[in-house]
């Protein structure tokens, strides 16, 4: 069975100083989630990785590991202009 991947929302606009949450759902359980941020004209860079139910914090972001390894959230409590761009979630399938 192929894994089904869902990342929401597909598009999001927030004002500077506001918070936002991105969600990544997989149909199968995975051990580690990776969150990447890609600014326009630049390659993706790793924002956070998470592999346990303890929240991970980095660069003003908080990652959560939920639903028995089938879901992760990326929360930015206070958005900054440099947060603009695309976000991607990935998993360690090993």
TrEMBL record:
Claim: Signal is one of the keywords in the record: yes
A biological-process GO annotation: adaptive immune response
Species of provenance: Pseudonaja textilis (Eastern brown snake)
Pfam families: V-set
PANTHER family, alphabetized: T CELL RECEPTOR ALPHA VARIABLE 16, T-CELL RECEPTOR ALPHA CHAIN V REGION
Keywords: Adaptive immunity, Immunity, Immunoglobulin domain, Receptor, Signal, T cell receptor
Statement: the UniProt record of this protein carries the keyword Signal: yes
Domain Ig-like intervals: 3-94
Protein name (database record): Ig-like domain-containing protein
Residues forming coiled coils: none
Gene Ontology cellular-component annotations: T cell receptor complex
